[in-house]
Amino acid sequence: MLRDGRLPEARVLVERAVAAADPQARPLPMARATLGTIYLKTHAYDQAVEQLRQAIAGDTSLWAARYNLACAYARLGRLSEAYDVLRELVASQPEYATLAARDGELAALRDDPEYGARFAALVGGTKK
Predict the structure, then answer these.
(1) pLDDT tens digits, the chain, 128 residues: what are they?
(2) Alpha carbon 51 to chain centroid distance?
(3) Are 60 and 27 contacting, i.e. CB atoms less than 8 angstroms apart?
(4) Inter-residue contact 89 to 70 (CB < 8 Å)
(5) What class, spelled out in words, does domain 7-123 have in CATH?
(6) What global pTM score does this model have?
(7) In 37, 51, 66, 119, which residue has its Cα 20 to 30 A from 59's Cα atom?
(8) What are the sequence ranges of the domains in the chain?
(9) In Å, how far are 41, 102, 113 from 2, measured between CA atoms?
């Protein structure tokens, strides 16, 4: 459903899965990462941050969730947190630098006077 752009339908299904999970069981990191991505794409940034943080806490190898967390932070104007998450991600997964360099979700970080030059250095480009 996500790949088909059917975000409202996917959101309902994933929200149900997360809500129905046993609180004593593993925290469903993939489901939370998916839900966080849906929230990011539907501009529910605070909810995206909450779900993505929980996903990463449950599985530290969810690189896309880390990237999406940086995007959600940037959209919220929490640029310090966005930069920190992105810096750590690119250090361990350098392929994300290419995506970050052109991603509109990170425009606030890229265009910020304080973070723009650091962002450009991080992703291997130059600030325009």
Answers:
(1) 445 666 676 656 666 666 656 655 666 888 899 999 999 999 999 999 999 999 999 999 999 999 999 999 999 999 999 999 999 999 999 999 999 999 999 999 999 999 999 999 999 854 44
(2) 10
(3) no
(4) yes
(5) mainly alpha
(6) 0.82
(7) 119
(8) 7-123
(9) 10, 22, 35
